Amino acid sequence: MEEIDENPGAVGGRRVKLIIALLHQIFNGFGNLLMNGASLNRSGGLKVLAASVAVTSVLGNSYAYSVYVAPLASLWGSTFWASLPFSILIATFAFSSIIGGRLYARKGNIRVPALLSMVLTGGGLLLSSLVEVVSTPLWLATTYGVVVGLGNGMGYVPIVALARKWYPDKAGFATGVVILGYGGSALAFAPLKALLIELMGVGLTFAAVGLISFTIGVPAAMVVRDPPQELVNYFSRFAKKRAVIPKRDYKPGEALKTPDFWLLWASFMLTAGPGLMLIGHMANLAALNNIPSPPLAVSIFSVMNALGRPPAGWVSDKLGRFGRPLTMTAFFTAQGLVFYALSTPLASIPWLFFFMVAALGFFYGSGLALFPAATGDFFGLKHLSENYSLIFIGWGLSGLLFPSLGSYIVDSTGGYELALIISSILSVAGGLVNLYLKKRLALYLQ
Asked: What domains can you pick out in the chain, each with its CATH number?
């Protein structure tokens, strides 16, 4: 009897369901940890946190853009033009986060930037679905790069700031849970997009993801809300005993005038840049090292990028007043050592290569959980969304500079060794900056 191959669509569908179920179980576990030891009535906090994860998951589908590159390159005959919309999205995301943070601070209502974010994201994806009709790269660069990028910028920083407001006593961990949605979203969206492209083409896939974004994102944005004044008042008493509390709340203009703002900004850029370079070049790096199944390296990095965020925040919370800079110093120094190891012949051993990629994914994700909390430690919670949006520009600039630097070095030398050594040095430098910031933090705390 002739053996019949299993329907690839059914296989892809089961993978999507398994990934969603896994993320659901992970979130339930994190929710239990957040409730452990709670000594106040935080009614509705977990509901808001779950809705926040849904919002960041919609935004995070942007991380799965790479599945569009091959069909778009086939359509336009250029990998450069096919990749350009994602680069524009990163830049737009970083710089428009200032607008999102300021909008939240001015309106005082999280639902305003959250809803605007979901409308821009879903609308931009629906407009992007015309890519095969308006067959010019500039259309996608505008609809996806600018419009969806604005959606990311409007929502990401306010939602991250909201997590810390609801859980000031578990700031690092709560922030990590929320942005797990952003990092982990690609795990579900990447296979879903690949399946949809296979079934109905790239244009209709943009439309389908846009409709999914509206369906998930708009209701979630209607659920998120700011904590009640009772909780804010409790924090003012609770923090004096157990949590990190700054002496005062710094307005953005005041924070910009402090040297520590720029040290924190520089540390973010130095430590996130190498990770962003690796994201853009990982499959090629694996191939040059003769590693079997290069896409597996991308998947491993994505998983650890997502899962590394809550544990890093939890560790920093447990270490007390100076937990954030201590954790960042340790993690980023270790990141530098792994980058150096990746530049050596050890990287040609498959299991070691995958282990190093997993470690780098963890460290990259941990930074995205720790920097928002650290910004609040230094400059207070009242203007956190605005202050962190300015810090976040360091991430955006590193996303523009480091992948291009990696490409230039590879084109010039024929390999990644120099790029990885530079990444190692910069990571350690960023870690040591935080060691200095540990001493400086005492000046900002009560």
From this structure: 7-242 (1.20.1250.20), 244-446 (1.20.1250.20)
